[in-house]
TrEMBL record:
It comes from the Bacteria. PROSITE patterns: PROKAR_LIPOPROTEIN. Residues 1-22 form the signal peptide. InterPro entries: MliC, MliC_sf. Keywords: Lipoprotein, Membrane, Palmitate, Signal, Transferase. It comes from Actinobacillus indolicus. This is Acetylglucosamine transferase. The keyword rRNA-binding does not apply.
Length: 134
């Protein structure tokens, strides 16, 4: 009798296992999932809109034929990108009573009373002076 009970238990467990595996969806092995290439649809390039910002670059001619290039920074209020000797720094506006002045930790770009600009470094060494718009 005990053998019949064990046999029924084994048959019941086997039948349940077959039903459970038959009802579950087939899954991919992890290796097959990694190897499967996922592709994203490419956007239609004919409908792409490209906005071009109106960039104004001002060039200044200084003594000793030095050139200083100024480009306004549209993301920050009253900031400029100043290029001198193939180096560009972002300078922020400084509040003054009568003239304009921009500075950062390295450079100071300031206007004197005659309307000419001067570029100095953080040690007050003049890098370019008597700069006028081209």
């Amino acid at each position: 009798m005990q053998n019949v009970g064990k046999l029924n238990a084994i048959l019941f467990i086997s039948t349940c296992g077959i039903f459970v595996t038959a009802c579950t969806p087939s899954s991919m092995s992890p290796v097959a999932q990694v190897e499967q290439k996922q592709t994203l649809p490419e956007p239609d390039k004919s409908n792409t809109i490209v906005k071009v910002k109106n960039q104004s670059i001002i060039k200044y001619q200084c003594d000793n034929k030095k050139i200083v290039t100024i480009e306004p920074d549209n993301t920050k209020k009253k900031a400029i990108h100043l290029t001198f000797a193939q180096t560009t720094h972002t300078l922020s506006s400084v509040v003054t009573k009568k003239s304009q002045k921009y500075s950062n930790i390295r450079w100071v770009w300031s206007e004197d009373f005659s309307g000419k600009w001067k570029l100095r470094d953080n040690r007050n060494k003049v890098l370019a002076e008597n700069c006028v718009k081209k």
